[in-house]
């Protein structure tokens, strides 16, 4: 018997060693693939490289010819072939997750190229033209080389713009163009970027101040070089783009607002849904889910209205909210102070709900003037990967008469802590994950978590009265309406006015902000579906955990499981929670058994 046990032990050890060797080999191949793909991406997209913290290409912009697009897609296919050649069975559970997520990202990239989404690189919401104007916001200016790199990029902006125009011209030939009603809104933004006085140009801002160590000669040389780049490259490029938009692009714009009207439109929208929700859902399923959520939330809004002592219906309450001055401010400074108070109040509550908090802070800024007219009410920009720039919460102060104070808390929770900033900054700091996982942005997870954060604000006691609770419901209603309106526009043939009317009927917002939102759904199909789909999945998983664990449910442990893998597709998120619950209940069973023995 002893000999048999020894032989069995030796066999198990040898088998385990063999498996370990195979896993090690497969893992090495996988990690080498991750490294090669990252190196390729950094080289091909210098703007991404700068954000990532690789400064070898800080003087360059991406090249964007059709040949460049095809070459990149071909290389992505090569990466996918290499991935498929790795035996997934030989990987650890963690690497299997990395494998699955990486494969999904490669396949998405290839699919977007096949659909030729790159032929529509611009909209009223932004594009390369606005991103370039904000380039300096994500840069550091400490050395002469930093300034020279920035000036080099401004000099390259002319070619960068011409290449985008050529892609859009090919889009016109192929019928791949945005709706005309969207394109007609772009010139206003471009006009604001063409400064009559170059010294007033947004791009000149970094050249107005230098480190004290710079000599007078260096300052003069850099200033003159910067002014020349703006005068001879940037401004002419913006003028050329404006001319193209007015004379060629707008006339070619689609009359139909639905993405389904593109040559490959139905397939395009199906991929948009899959990409943004990470689930196999039909437009009809999503539409019906949206209608049900609108009905539920509307009833909760009615209950809140009663708690506020108001006797009328939602339409009457909306008129009351629009007229009562206590829900508005008179100046941008007042608005920012209100937001800052909410941010600090929330920070004090975070340790009760989270074991880990990000090291990077989040700041507060106004939305830039050149995009504020068409920008959303608020948005967030994440920290740079090299930790030289914090995350920032941008608040739009353009239309104060339509900015209601009772909506501020829910929106701040969504965009900063415990929403986007907490989740994204934590993910960036997860050094145990490969780079592509730290950069992953699965929309349903990211936006679903942020909408969940709005709901969490109730437990955190951020909502101070029933009006701010109504604001939370009003925000949630927007996300539910999106399920109805997005699918209505892109699948069911809804008109723009039909979409506006539906949202006017079911929210407290005015026509101006609602029109801006509907135009966003028109130009960004599928993205708006991610919020409610993701939030509903996280809430489903939380209810499952609460039911299974009972009094042993720990909100901080649950949040650890949701957050500690970074952004993942919703099916993987569900698997993570189920595995955690299985481990927890198994441990509890073992403890009960041990207590019984004692």
Explain the overall architecture.
This protein is mainly alpha-helical and 598 residues long. The chain folds into 2 domains: 33-258; 268-536, no CATH class. The chain has 23 helices and 5 strands. A 3-stranded mixed beta sheet has the order 3-5-4. Strands 1-2 form a two-stranded antiparallel ribbon. Helix 13 packs across helix 14.
Please name the defining characteristics of this protein.
65% helix; 598 residues; globular; mainly alpha
What's the short version?
With 598 residues, this protein is mostly helical. It has 23 helices and 5 strands.
Count helical runs.
Answer: 23
N to C succession of SSEs: HHHHEEHHHHHHHHHEEEHHHHHHHHHH
- Computed CA radius of gyration, to the nearest angstrom: 26 Å
What is the percent of helical residues? 55-70%
Percent strand: under 5%
Shape, please? globular
Whole-number total of structural domains: 2
Give the strand order, joined by hyphens, for the main sheet.
3-5-4
Describe the sheet with the most strands: 3 strands, mixed
Separation of termini?
32 Å
Write down the overall mean pLDDT: 92
The unreliable regions are 1-23, 593-598
Counting copies of identical and different chains, the oligomeric state is single chain
Structural class: mainly alpha
Number of strands: 5
């Amino acid at each position: 018997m002893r000999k048999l046990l020894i032989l069995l032990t030796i066999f198990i050890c040898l088998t385990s060693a063999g498996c370990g060797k195979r896993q090690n080999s497969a893992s090495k191949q996988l990690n080498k693939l991750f490294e090669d793909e990252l190196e390729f991406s950094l080289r091909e997209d210098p703007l991404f490289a700068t954000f990532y913290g690789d400064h070898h290409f800080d003087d360059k912009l991406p090249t964007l010819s059709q040949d460049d697009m095809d070459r990149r897609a071909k290389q992505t296919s090569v990466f996918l072939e290499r991935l498929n050649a790795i035996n997934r069975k030989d990987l650890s559970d963690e690497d299997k997750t990395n494998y699955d997520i990486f494969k999904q990202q490669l396949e998405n990239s290839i699919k977007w190229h096949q659909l030729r989404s790159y032929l529509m690189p611009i909209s009223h919401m932004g594009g390369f033209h606005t991103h370039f104007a904000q380039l300096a916001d994500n840069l550091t200016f400490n050395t002469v080389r930093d300034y020279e790199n920035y000036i080099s990029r401004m000099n390259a902006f002319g070619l960068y713009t011409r290449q985008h125009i050529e892609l859009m011209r090919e889009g016109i030939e192929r019928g791949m163009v945005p709706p005309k009603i969207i394109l007609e809104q772009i010139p206003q933004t471009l006009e604001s970027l063409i400064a009559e006085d170059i010294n007033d140009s947004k791009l000149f801002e970094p050249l107005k101040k230098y480190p004290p160590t710079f000599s007078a000669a260096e300052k003069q040389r850099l200033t003159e070089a910067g002014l020349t780049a703006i005068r001879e490259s940037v401004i002419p490029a913006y003028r050329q783009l404006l001319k193209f938009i007015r004379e060629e692009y707008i006339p070619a714009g689609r009359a139909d607002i639905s993405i389904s009207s593109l040559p490959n439109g139905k397939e395009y929208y199906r991929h948009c849904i899959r990409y943004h929700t990470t689930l196999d859902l039909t437009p009809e399923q999503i539409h019906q889910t949206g209608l049900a959520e609108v009905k539920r939330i509307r009833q909760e809004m009615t209950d809140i209205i009663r708690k506020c002592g108001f006797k009328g219906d939602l339409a009457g309450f909306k008129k009351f909210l629009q007229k009562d001055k206590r829900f508005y401010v008179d100046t941008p400074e007042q608005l920012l102070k209100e937001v800052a108070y909410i941010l600090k109040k929330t920070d004090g509550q975070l340790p009760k709900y989270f074991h880990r908090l990000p090291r990077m802070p989040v700041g507060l800024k106004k939305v830039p003037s050149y995009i504020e007219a068409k920008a959303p009410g608020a948005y967030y920009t994440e920290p740079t990967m090299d930790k030289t720039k914090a995350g920032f919460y941008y608040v739009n102060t353009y239309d104060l008469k339509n900015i209601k104070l009772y909506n501020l808390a829910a929106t701040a929770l969504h965009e900063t802590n415990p929403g986007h900033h907490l989740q994204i900054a934590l993910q960036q700091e997860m050094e145990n994950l490969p780079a592509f996982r730290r950069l992953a942005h699965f929309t349903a997870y990211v936006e679903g978590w942020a909408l969940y954060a709005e709901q969490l604000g109730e437990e955190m006691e951020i909502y101070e009265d029933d009006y701010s609770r109504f604001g939370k419901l009003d925000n949630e209603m927007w996300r539910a309406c999106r399920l109805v309106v997005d699918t209505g526009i892109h699948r069911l043939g809804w008109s723009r006015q039909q979409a506006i009317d539906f949202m006017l009927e079911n929210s407290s917002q005015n026509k101006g902000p609602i029109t801006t939102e509907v135009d966003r759904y028109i130009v960004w199909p599928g993205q708006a579906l991610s919020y409610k789909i993701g939030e509903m999945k996280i809430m489903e998983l939380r209810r499952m955990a609460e039911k299974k664990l009972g009094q042993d449910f720990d909100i901080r442990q649950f949040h650890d499981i949701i957050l500690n893998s970074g952004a993942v597709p919703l099916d993987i998120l569900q698997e993570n929670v189920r595995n955690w619950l299985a481990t927890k209940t198994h441990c509890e069973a073992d403890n009960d058994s041990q207590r019984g023995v004692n």
